[in-house]
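Structure in, sequence out. Go:
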């Protein structure tokens, strides 16, 4: 069963005068790693914003477990069901790794008295342990910061993980480490992981690739490859 399903999804600016996405019919399941590719301007980041509930489709709809995302509590959806990893990490630089994860838990309303232990467990899952976990993120390498960002996105145990160019600022070795983490989250922990990427290497690691094409040059969006 699909956890997310796009039904004739479209998005336009300027009251429909500038279409970005058109008639997308994609499905996403738990236990799979997806890559969304395409040239700049094809709407990859726009699609991620729609999937995360930060933007609303101008045509069609996104179904989350058979519920129209536009008709459910969007804040609850974003804070309970969907974790987002950004290319530029979006961590708070004056906090350490543990504090960044704890803050995300607090914002999501995670309850319980073992939150710090849970935060350390999530960081250990992405190989941020010992002194690294207590170091201000500004003092961490790019790869380490990205792994902290992944742990933060997992802080409320979402079933869907969205990542916007998560390897764009990383070297090839670090890229491989990060993609291995995403692959494990999909295959071993049964999460739906969706990565927007320009990287052919990242796309090759995915179970399913959806390729967006700019509407003005290619018309309709193609099916999955």
């Amino acid at each position: 069963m699909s956890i997310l399903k796009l039904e004739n999804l479209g998005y336009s600016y300027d009251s429909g005068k500038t279409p970005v996405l058109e008639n997308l019919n994609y499905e996403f399941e738990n236990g799979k790693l997806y890559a969304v590719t395409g040239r700049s301007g094809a709407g990859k980041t726009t699609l991620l914003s729609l999937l995360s509930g930060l933007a609303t489709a101008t045509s069609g709809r996104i179904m989350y477990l058979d519920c129209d995302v536009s008709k459910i509590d969007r804040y609850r959806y974003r804070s309970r069901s969907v974790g987002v990893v950004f290319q530029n990490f979006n961590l708070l630089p004056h906090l350490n790794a543990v504090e960044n994860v704890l803050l995300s838990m607090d914002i999501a309303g995670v309850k319980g008295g073992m939150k710090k232990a849970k935060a350390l467990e999530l960081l250990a899952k992405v190989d941020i342990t010992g002194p690294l976990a207590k170091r201000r993120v500004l003092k961490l390498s790019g790869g380490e910061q990205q792994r902290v960002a992944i742990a933060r996105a997992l802080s409320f145990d979402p079933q869907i993980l969205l990542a916007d160019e998560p390897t764009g600022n990383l070297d090839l070795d670090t890229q491989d480490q990060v993609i291995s983490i995403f692959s494990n989250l999909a295959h071993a922990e049964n999460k739906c992981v969706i990565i927007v990427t320009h990287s052919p290497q990242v796309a090759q690691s995915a179970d399913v690739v959806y390729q967006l094409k700019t509407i003005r040059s290619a018309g309709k969006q193609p099916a999955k490859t």
